[in-house]
Structure formats: C-alpha cells, structure tokens
Amino acid sequence: MSTSTPPPADPRTFTPTTLDLGDAHLRPWSRKDVESSALVQGLMDAAADPQIALWNPLPAADHAAAVKWLEVRGDAWDAGTLATFALLEGPATDSGREPVFLGAVTVRWTDRSDGLGMVGYWLLPAARGRGLATRATLAATEWAFRTADVRRLELAHAVENEASCRVGLRAGFPAEGTLRASYRFGDGQYHDEHLHARLATDPTPQG
Ligand SMILES: CC(C)(COP(=O)(O)OP(=O)(O)OC[C@H]1O[C@@H](n2cnc3c(N)ncnc32)[C@H](O)[C@@H]1OP(=O)(O)O)[C@@H](O)C(=O)NCCC(=O)NCCS
Known about the structure:
Blueprint: E1 19-20, E2 24-28, H1 37-48, H2 50-55, H3 63-79, E3 82-89, E4 101-111, E5 116-123, H4 132-147, E6 152-158, H5 162-170, E7 175-184, E8 190-199
Parallel strand pairs: 5-6
Antiparallel strand pairs: 1-2, 2-3, 3-4, 4-5, 6-8, 7-8
The chain binds coenzyme A.
C-alpha cells in the first residue's frame, strides 16, 4: 500500500516546501514559529525597519500583532492560498539550532482560477546586499511554477525603490510598464509603481 501523500484536489495550491539556497534557506512560516523568540523578534524588528515600513509595511509592531500575523500565515498555508516563507541563515539541513532570521518571501494568488499570482519580499538590513533577495525570489518563483501551476507571476514596486527593481530584473521579471498612483505605501502617499512579470514559459535567467 502506498504511503505517499495524495495530490491536492486543486493543482493551484501552495504546498509547504523547504527551498535550499546553500548559504540560506526558505521555509514555510507556521503557527509553531510563535515558540521561537528569534523569529517573533525578527518579525517585530522587520516591522520597525524604516525601509520595510515604507515599502512593505507589516502589521507586527508588538508581540501580539506578530503572533497574529503568524497565525494568519499558517491558516493561509493550510488553505493553499498564500505562501509565506521565512528566509533563514544557513543550509536547510542546519536544524537543531536557533534560526537566524533574515527576511521573507511571499507568493499570493491575485486570480487563482487564472493562474495569476504576485511575489513579494523583504529582508532585514543586515541581510541585504549579498544577492539574497534575488536568489530567494528566483527559488520561490520556480517552486510556484513547478508545483502550483502558476501561469504568470507579477511583481510591483514603487518607482523610487531601485533595489526592488533590480531584484525583479535579476530574477527574470522584465518591466512591463508604470502604474500611476497605484498603491498607497507606508508613508500614506500613493506612488507610481513599476509592474514586472514572469511567465511560466519564460527562460530561467542566467547568472
Ligand atoms: C529590496 C530588498 C529586498 C533587496 O534586498 P537585497 O538582498 O539587498 O537585494 P540583492 O542583494 O539581491 O540586490 C539586488 C540588486 O539591487 C541593488 N541594490 C541594492 N540596494 C540598492 C539601493 N539602495 N539602490 C539601488 N540599487 C540597490 C544591488 O546592487 C543589486 O543589483 P545588481 O543585481 O545589479 O548587483 C531590500 O532592500 C529590502 O528588504 N528593502 C525593504 C523592503 C522592500 O523594499 N521590499 C520590496 C517591496 S516591492
């Protein structure tokens, strides 16, 4: 008798998976992470970082809010509707030690029945500048195409956010245009955004 897990009823479901980047790994955030003070504190530190508060505000200002954020993320993994990965230092095999938290990558459906999704990312300041956001975005994108039948993945960033633009381009998401006054960011102002997208049929970017 087979003991393998049956495939999900809807192929457009995000299935929790750990993705190894070599020097770091992405692993699904879960409700159990509330037991890790390093992860909960890391989430609160991220919410307090000025760049994250501006471009990717997180409702995790205090312990209770951070726990709530994790619970919502856990529920969404259960439903297969939103994939939130914690980016942690070291290879995936590096278990048993308190994790060193670096940031997060999310993949969400914007139109599940049409295979349309959106990717997002943020890193703590100490983790920036070593290509991690690009590599983590690449890994999560290819996982979404391979396992969740994503057809087109979009990425949007404020036009002033040059680092995010570089991440998109390097991860194989060409810019498609400018969305005018399309999103209200953490400063309370509407900013123009660049829309980037990658299709499942696009080639994997080289280097
Ligand atoms: C955007 C962010 C995730 C980039 O993380 P990172 O790990 O430093 O990115 P990478 O190391 O992969 O660098 C990507 C590119 O951006 C460039 N870059 C980094 N910071 C930059 C800056 N302030 N201005 C211009 N370019 C910058 C890097 O040189 C690199 O370019 P290259 O590939 O041509 O060498 C990080 O700065 C961050 O978390 N910012 C706050 C939250 C945020 O903006 N999230 C995205 C919302 S859309």
